[in-house]
Amino acid sequence: MQTNSAIFNAKPVLFAPVPIIKSVNTTDHNPSSSLASSPSSLLFPAHNQNWAHRKKATITSRSDKHRWSRTHLISPKNALKRFPCAPTSLLDGSKCISCFHYPHQKRVGGHRFRTGAFFDKSASHILKQNVDNSLAGKVKQLNVPRATLGPEEPHAASTTWPDGVLEKQGLDLYDPELERSEFERFLSSELPSHPKLHRGQLRNGLRYLILPNKVPPSRFEAHMEVHVGSIDEEEDEQGIAHMIEHVAFLGSKKREKLLGTGARSNAYTDFHHTVFHIHSPTRTKDSDDELLPVVLDALNEIAFHPKFLASRVEKERRAILSELQMMNTIEYRVDCQLLQYLHSENKLSKRFPIGLEEQIKKWDADKIRKFHERWYFPGNATLYVVGDIDNIPKTVQHIESVFGQTGVESETVVPPTPSTFGAMASLLVPKLTVGLAGSLAHDKSSGSVEQSKIFRRERHAVRPPVQHNWSLPGSNDALKPPQIFQHELLQNFSINMFCKIPVNKVQSFGDLRNVLMKRIFLSALHFRINTRYKSSNPPFTSVELDHSDSGREGCTVTTLTVTAEPKNWQSAIKVAVQEVRRLKKFGVTKGELTRYLDALLKDSEQLAAMIDNVSSVDNLDFIMESDALGHRVMDQRQGHESLVAVAGTITLEEVNAVGAKVLEFISDFGKPSAPLPAAIVACVPMKVHMDGLGETDFKITPTEITAAIEAGLKEPVEAEPELEVPKELITTKQLQELMLLRRPSFLSVGPDVNQTKVYDAETGIMQRRLSNGIPVNYKISKSEAKCGVMRLIVGGGRAAEDLEKKGAVIVGVRTLSEGGRVGSFSREQVELFCVNHLINCSLESTEEFICMEFRFTLRDNGMRAAFQLLHMVLEHSVWLDDAFDRARQLYLSYYRSIPKSLERSTAHKLMLAMLNGDERFVEPTPHSLQNLTLECVQDAVMSQFVCDNMEVSIVGDFSEDEIESCILDYLGTVEATKGLERAQSYRPITFRPPAADLQHQQVFLKDTDERACAYIAGPAPNRWGFTFEGQDLFEAIDDGIPTHEGANEQLKLEDQLMASQRSGEELQQGFRRHPLFFAITMGILAEVINSRLFTTVRDSLGLTYDVSFELNLFDRLNLGWYVISVTSTPGKVHKAVDACKNVLRGLHTNRITPRELDRAKRTLLMRHEAEIKSNAYWLGLLAHLQATSVPRKDITCIKDLTSFYETANIEDIYLAYEQLKIDENSLFSCIGVAGTQAGEGVSDLLQEEDSVEGLQTVIPLGRGSSTMTRPTT
After folding, report:
1. Average pLDDT, the chain
2. H/E/C letters for each residue in 1044-1080?
3. What are the angstrom distances between the C-alpha of 1219 and each of 260, 911, 1021, 1038, 1113?
4. Distance, CA of 796 to CA of 802 (rounded, Å)
5. Can you give the residue ranges of the Peptidase M16 C-terminal domain (predicted)?
6. Catalytic residue positions?
7. CATH number, domain at 1087?
8. Are residue 877 and residue 963 in the same domain, yes or no?
9. Domain assignment of residue 1019, yes or no
């Protein structure tokens, strides 16, 4: 799915992270966690998508290390935002926070700014990227920071400005009267340091960082970073650091003791480090004992005192071999190819963390132990503690107590020089000049023969310890020829041009100023490429320029990535080079400079306002990455004030000069003065689909690639014209006329409620209904300062598609997104309107609904601007033929890419079998796409956009007067329309009757490497207790659902044990009659099953690395299903499937224990508590509060959520378990196997239509997934 939302990633690189509006489904790292069972996911129907559509096509890197990156199928849509899955992304960057969110790379480039007013996130996989959640507002002329040490911050580093710099507030730094010397002095002065960040070092060399942070409350993060990774492995040790990570982490008994406390833990390995992390409550639930010492003790055992038992080594060996096969997707292989050529001169090209299979099979415990002894010692590690910690000295004392004696006997570490630290010399070390690996002279002993023997136990001064060949101007003779990676599983053409330079450590105002200018320059490039070619049919599918610092690779890499249909590859390269040359030659315009600088400053100010809402893990990741790169760590407020200080000094000429330097390796390609590309790598298919010819060989040579680049250098270029940007989409006069015409007002909220305003004081939720029939829910929240979110939910979705118009809704939503026009405004104008107001808007279709979501700032009338855009979409959408053509081609391309993916083809076959071939739950076929017209897709979508079929929910930091004014002005003036019955009617959905030939199937994919996966699925009820058979389960509960034979006596005993945790018989009976009963009990059940799958199939039997159980519970449709997904090897996958079935069915004989139930409930409640302050979370809670299609949802579903989780008992969970169809006649499975000896071709599964031509699949290509291992659990 191509990215179309207007998002501006405006964060200056050194600011601490913005609080992420996360998926409500933040996952656990305990083996018991499951994506599908977040408390909030129970109430997020608009984000509940078909599992086959949500199946990710790639195995991502663990850049979000505090979350799982499993191969999930049934998680709510928000959970998928962290997966790259875009065969046709135009600018598919990560969410903006990735600039600060380690271990993502810090990205300066403008690809973070996604053009377009609408971001289509429909249930087909064209794209599932996260949208920017940082919204900004008007910039005030703030004072430059002058923070000093205060009495409550005895350990804080001074952030006082150098004397004489910016002595008076509001000084215009670029005043011609200002002495040049003073200006230069300002630019060279150091940026302030984070005032609350506390650094220290123990006698044994262990360094620690402590940051008090109140979000989430009563919880903390403790991460142990050991500075050893795959780059430190010798030739016969490839993968051994990852092996140690597994054995040390999962072999720790002290870590196991944390299970049941609400703590989550995991680990990962990268090129340059291994990280063990624990997210924990500050105190135990029952005894109120501090958990920090317990957590630190567990980390001490994991990192420095692991037990390398032979049994554990063998278990993890099996798991890693399974992980290796699971990761070995075509996307992973492309990543490896890119890294091999980019870093061909050093070990980064051949030391991938996952390791080599033949070596992993050989190591014994002694070999692993020796590597551990060489690298895992306190002097080579850094401890991070970030969270709700008030007493810093006490925290330091805990660290001293736990770690102080570790390694003292064998390590000789010279203590820090007291003069370096001032008054706190005995406690803290100064900020290192090169991140955590700065000047380490005092860490090393000299002159001792004995010390020379343990040289390997000294911490490297540079991480990773490799030498790079930088991209410097040179002769054409030194130019490396383009490299070509050709593979049968690739369908798309892509080319990457790399430029590699040293990291420019951002320590001074001058450094920050350069970053700002680059960001402005590259933002302009991305917007231009998209707007210039969007309305035509461009020869490329995407053009992306990325300028990133990489801590894991120890360099800054600029990458031009061009993707295209194979037949258009030469034209795509030529256009990309031409646009780069245009920007380099003429630079950005005055309007662009003003526009993007203003957006950057607005976003920066918004971050500063949200300083108290940043989660601990985001702050920690930001600090870890900043230190790895050597950047100065500032908090959000310091970052904004520093940005304001430098913003007024930049000029158009300097922006263009600085930006041009970034582009020279492309624009001046071949010239002696140009930097030499570090590598040029093309990834291409073996075959290509040609009109009338079918599949033919795709041929390409390095000489032809070079010629295409040179052709782009010869194309004529002209200066960019200025664009007129509308300040508003609806003028005051137009609004007045609409108000007179439509006369909006509020009516009674419902037929049984004689009130126009229903307010719930406990939740702060207000319910309203407009005279045109649109219901509105809103909540005023101060959690995210001056931010707001809004969601329009329209009933219908893909379920409403006619037999003759299969795919009409999903293609129609995509068409609307592709067009991007409203009223008389062009796509470019709408996009720039969104940029100026920092609005991002997403549009998606699911099986049940069409949804539009807006994120906006409350500054500069941002909320009114968002409401104007929504009004224009509802009233004046423009449907374009070329947008329809592109949308149809994208889905055709996506369908044809299914046989190239083992996971997708396996899921596709299972879905068709289970739902009796119903195309509404899979990608539309070429035949269906051929039958669609612009008129029919427009009708399919707009027939659902009727007032009595809509619901709008808003959450944000606004006043009642502000929000109600917007509601009346822009929603109330939408023309009243009716069509609820048509919009919500749909063909029955049925599960296939038992059929031996279709219930258990296999898929074979021919590939050079072996892999295997499997999916097991079956029917479940929907979220509100309705089944596909037409049964209302609440009626069955009233009649008394029979429990499993022989279970009553045990249930009585178990209930007695848990009686103290219940609120009495009356509350229990109320829970079983409550609409949330099945949603809550199914969520708890999923947690329990996931835990058992991990401990049995993964840990005990060693049949898989990755297994998960997930539920897809619909809201409007009277059905749901469960899916178990498992990856394995071809030799073990059938055993893994059998083991998964045994676990699923084994709950009858191996009954759920009170401990399992308590752990599952704590996990879910912990997630609820962590997300409760998020606007996005509340937006999901509000969904369907007044929807006629979800009649059982009411305010009690929000108010009673936590109490009902506490109330649920084991018998309740079994009432839910009985509703899962797990017998052999109801259960469906499909096994996918890839390898050189694979049998029947997977392409036979799909209906091929030669009469329809389409784009080739775009597979996101980068160098991320190969640089890090998956989380250990």
Report:
1. 80
2. CCCCHHHHHHHHHHCHHHCCCHHHHHHHHHCCCHHHH
3. 27, 20, 7, 15, 12
4. 12
5. 363-600, 932-1164
6. 245, 316
7. 3.30.830.10
8. yes
9. yes
